[in-house]
Amino acid sequence: MTASAFRVGEAHRPRPFSREIPRIVTGVWPLMSARQAEFPHHEVPGTIVPDEVRAEMASVDEAGARAQGVRLAEKIIAAALKYFPGVYLITPFLHYETTSELARFARRL
What we know:
- The chain is mainly α.
- It contains 4 helices and 3 strands.
- The chain starts with a strand and ends with a helix.
- The model has no long low-confidence stretch (mean pLDDT 87).
């Protein structure tokens, strides 16, 4: 299991290790707000939410933030599943419906 990917380009990062570790899965943490994008970046050691992702989340209103976070998570899931057998979804605080939605999306790929 990898750390959460917050950018599409990070989804394949562990690929060089896949020969030694054949069952790598990428973590996907859908962001639901600009505040939630800032929290792991500043408060979770070793977690980096890229500047452009935090800026994207800050550029939309609260209603648009969830949609933006889900779109980004879907892109990361699609990219990760090109290289690895699965992803694991980290449920944003009390947003279980988002995890269900993304699980259905991943199954369709």
